[in-house]
Amino acid sequence: MKFLVFVEQRDGKIRKASLEALSLARKLSGGPVAAVLPGKGVTALAKDLARYGAGTVYVADRDELALYSTKGYVGALAAAAEKEKPDAVLLAATAMGKDVAPRFAARRGVSALADVMELRVEAGRLVGSRPVYSGKARAEVDCGDSALQIATTRPNVFPAEAQEGPEPKIETLELGPIQPRAKVLRVETPESRELDVAEADVIVSGGRGIKGPENWPVIRDLQEALGAALGASRAVVDAGWIDHQHQVGQTGKVVSPTLYVACGISGAIQHLAGMGTSKVIVAINKDPDAPIFKVATYGVVGDLFQIVPEFAKAVRAAKAE
Ligand SMILES: Cc1cc2nc3c(=O)[nH]c(=O)nc-3n(C[C@H](O)[C@H](O)[C@H](O)COP(=O)(O)OP(=O)(O)OC[C@H]3O[C@@H](n4cnc5c(N)ncnc54)[C@H](O)[C@@H]3O)c2cc1C
């Protein structure tokens, strides 16, 4: 099966989720695959994609692609697909991938598998499984007999595996005039460049159990000790205790870290929808009947104000050994 992978970059850095999709495509195809890389000043980044499985990189390096636009980026993918004529296209299920994939699929009149957590090739078809009912069940999905199969892969689920290999063939895409119907005028980044929960391997999250924003230092202490990103429930975001970028859940970010530590979070279904697929879940809650314990790998029943500082101390001591 011939694969084309849509690769995303931000601020001149390839996103890990795209490297995961690329590695997966290499694994499924059993050899190098093609990638498409849109943006401005991105040609220099193309080389490194070879280590993750790209044999050919189609580069769309244009001023008009400096900021994301659906039409511009879908246009780049379509142009690469026109040249490569792939059987399958993979994208990471990031905010951008979730925007590009359905638009591209609609252009081609085919369906797309969204947010898969497993993917295999069976008789020339992509077959995947994806979470449904807010993560309570998995559905097995495929694209039928579609001539072009498309899937988005959930970040942090598939490994990004680097291997040494030859340099990729780099092809510059000739795109016509790019006139997006909706234009991103600017991107505002928060002043403190915090680790993004969507990309983090370890997340420490706080919920209403922390009682008030003045108590974030208790959670931050553990977060720093673990080198983690800071997550939050919607309740504390709605209360204005922390910015929405930290929110995990159905209306926040979907995460799948190796370790998720939930402090004072009840485990409402909408929160579980965002973190239920984390590999190891540690829950700290004073209510033994809190629903978070149903998904937790390790549950600690008790007061977070006593447990979290001890946890942070123990992590620091273990790291110092
Ligand atoms: C359409 C919709 C979308 C939603 N999207 C999201 C979403 O994306 N993300 C999300 O998180 N929620 C979402 N919600 C809200 C969700 O239903 C819950 O209201 C929310 O997750 C609760 O947040 P919480 O666990 O912090 O607060 P609570 O439910 O109030 O839980 C606080 C927990 O802290 C514990 N606690 C209190 N004090 C301590 C202490 N000292 N030590 C230890 N534990 C303590 C309590 O036992 C309790 O379990 C959504 C809701 C709707 C309707």
Short characterization:
With 321 residues, the protein is α/β, with parallel strands linked by helices. Helices cover 27% and strands 26% of the residues. The strands form four sheets. The protein has a seven-stranded parallel β-sheet with strand order 7-11-6-1-4-5-12, sandwiched between helices. Strands 14-13-15-16-17 form a five-stranded parallel β-sheet.
Tag the structure with descriptive keywords.
321 residues, alpha/beta, 7-stranded parallel sheet, 5-stranded parallel sheet, 8 helices, 17 strands, globular, binds flavin-adenine dinucleotide
Alpha carbon gyration radius = 21 Å
Order of strands across the biggest sheet?
7-11-6-1-4-5-12
The oligomeric state is single chain
Count of helical regions: 8
Helices and strands, with pairings:
Elements: E1 3-6, E2 9-10, E3 13-14, H1 16-29, E4 33-39, E5 54-61, H2 70-84, E6 88-92, H3 95-108, E7 112-116, E8 118-122, E9 125-132, E10 137-142, E11 149-153, E12 169-172, E13 202-206, H4 216-226, E14 229-232, H5 234-238, E15 259-263, H6 269-275, E16 280-285, H7 292-295, E17 298-301, H8 304-320
Parallel strand pairs: 1-4, 1-6, 4-5, 5-12, 6-11, 7-11, 13-14, 13-15, 15-16, 16-17
Antiparallel strand pairs: 2-3, 8-9, 9-10
Helix pairs in contact: 2-3, 4-8
Flavin-adenine dinucleotide (FAD) binds at residues 207-209, 233-236, 247-252, 264-266, 268, 270-271, 274, 284-287, 290, 303-305.
